Amino acid sequence: MKVVAISGSPRNPGNTVTYLNAVLEGIKGQGMETSLISLAGKNISGCTGCYGCVEAKECVVKDDFQEVFQAMVEADAILLGTPVYHGSMTAELKAVLDRAGFSGRWANNPMKEKEESYTWGGCVFSGKIVAPLAVARRTGQVFALAELLVWANVNDCIIPGNTYWNMGVAGKGGAKDALEDKEALSIMDGLAQRILHLLEKLNQ
Ligand SMILES: Cc1cc2nc3c(=O)[nH]c(=O)nc-3n(C[C@H](O)[C@H](O)[C@H](O)COP(=O)(O)O)c2cc1C
How far is Cα 160 from Cα 76, in angstroms, rounded to an integer? Predict the structure, then answer.
């Protein structure tokens, strides 16, 4: 089974990448294939709202998005990690999630007449495990986590629980000091165990 982590930070290495790797560390070596994709330096535009995916069944804007989307589609579990920027996820991650969620929806559904209510037949993410992760210097993690959870929820995903929010406190003055938050490292380990448990249960 495949687990992919996506870092929405424009920095690699950085705190988000460190925490995502901590989760992957707890998952790998148990018959799981893990990988990390950093959005740092990638050329990925925001959704242009062209609706080209309704007909084409794929995002028609061609840039680095396609490789990220492909990895998400192939994964059984997806970790979405972001630093908190002004209380939210980063623009880099939002761009990917807007395009992945919208084009991934039309891949399995025809456009209906305007007056009809939609009856969605699932999307490319249906049944996948999606776990959010956020890191901030001081605050805003739960709001950013909520944004990621809203995406996972409307994309028909299964969200693992944990005994604390999947968050770290790091980055004062731009420091890359994620490893100093020991509680965060234990939270990441707990998340890894829960993702493993869910993957095993879902594939019994
Ligand atoms: C543009 C910008 C906005 C930020 N906004 C917040 C914020 O709202 N709350 C906060 O606590 N930290 C904020 N930070 C700090 C980062 O969340 C923090 O440094 C984080 O550890 C960076 O993660 P990274 O190393 O993965 O990029 C901001 C940093 C930048 C550059």
Answer: 13
Q: Is 30 in contact with 196 (CB distance < 8 Å)?
A: yes
Specify the pTM.
Answer: 0.97
Lining residues, ligand 1, CB within 6 Å: 9, 11, 14-16, 83-87, 135-140, 170-171, 174, 176
Domains of the chain, first to last: 2-202 (3.40.50.360)
Tens-digit pLDDT string for the chain (204 aa): 999 999 999 999 999 999 999 999 999 987 899 999 999 999 999 999 999 999 999 999 999 999 999 999 999 999 999 999 999 999 999 999 999 999 999 887 877 656 566 677 889 999 999 999 999 999 999 999 999 999 999 999 999 999 999 999 999 999 999 999 999 999 999 999 999 999 999 998
